[in-house]
Amino acid sequence: ILDQNKFKCIIKIKTIGSTYMAASGITEDTEQEDGPRWGHLSNLVEFAIELKKSLSSINEQSFNHFVLKMGINHGPVTAGVIGARKPHYDIWGNTVNVASRMESTGKVGHMQ
Q: Which coenzymes or cofactors are required (predicted)?
C-alpha cells in the first residue's frame, strides 16, 4: 500500500508486536499553512481505510480472521534516531501518546 503514489508522504516508523506505526509530514516544514498539514491527516485516514480493505481481502482469500484497530492523531512530534547499539528512527510526544491510546482503547475494525 505504501508503494502507491498517493501514500508517498507516509513513512513506516516501526512495528512492535502487532502494532504498526506510520506517520505523515514528518520531513515537511511545520511552518506551512494549515492546508498541507491537514492534507497529511487526510492521507493517513485514506491509508488506514486502504489497509482495512486489504486486510478484509486477505481474510476472505485465506480464511483467516485478522483484525485491525486504528488510532490516528494530528499534531507536533519530536523525531530522531535513538539507541547506541541498535540505532533506529522513532517519534515521541503527546500526539503519539494520544494516537496510541486511541488504538489501544478502540473497537476492533474501527478507526478513532
A: Mg(2+)
**Confidence at 43, pLDDT banded by 50, 70, 90:** very high
Rounded to two decimals, what is the model's pTM? 0.81
Neighbours of 92 (CB within 10 A): 12
Q: Residue 86 has what DSSP assignment? A: S
CA distance linking residue 49 with residue 30, whole number of Å:
25
- Work out the angle at residue 81's Cα, subtended by the Cα atoms of residues 86 and 41, and round it to the nearest 5 degrees: 125
Q: How far is the C-alpha of 51 from the C-alpha of 56, rounded, in Å?
A: 9
Please, what CATH class does the domain formed by 5-105 belong to? alpha beta
